[in-house]
Amino acid sequence: MTPTWAERELRRIRDWVAFLYDEPVAPIVLAGFGDAEAAAAQARHLHELIEVGARNMAHAQRAGELPAERDPEFMAAGTLGGTNAVVAVCLTRDPRPPAESVVDQLWALVSGAVGLSHL
Asked: In this predicted structure, what is the pLDDT of residue 118?
């Protein structure tokens, strides 16, 4: 059986948090380097991720898995920006919050932002 959009995205969040929690340079990368060239590269990368995310969300809308009235690019930008900011905060805390708690809170953010509760 093919997983739903929600199942795939929850798995993606779990994998991403696990990767970042294990990566020693993740706090530095998520916080930015302070260098204009690096910041520009980071902005380009985020824009590319937003484009991919918007296509992903538009596909889920066409499949009836996400509300059709929401702008997929806005949803992608909001969820990517929000999840990056949340994980950046988590990685700077001492002690770090448990990864599964972060995943749960990120999923609440993402699922609410994309309107899963409205279906």
From this structure: 67
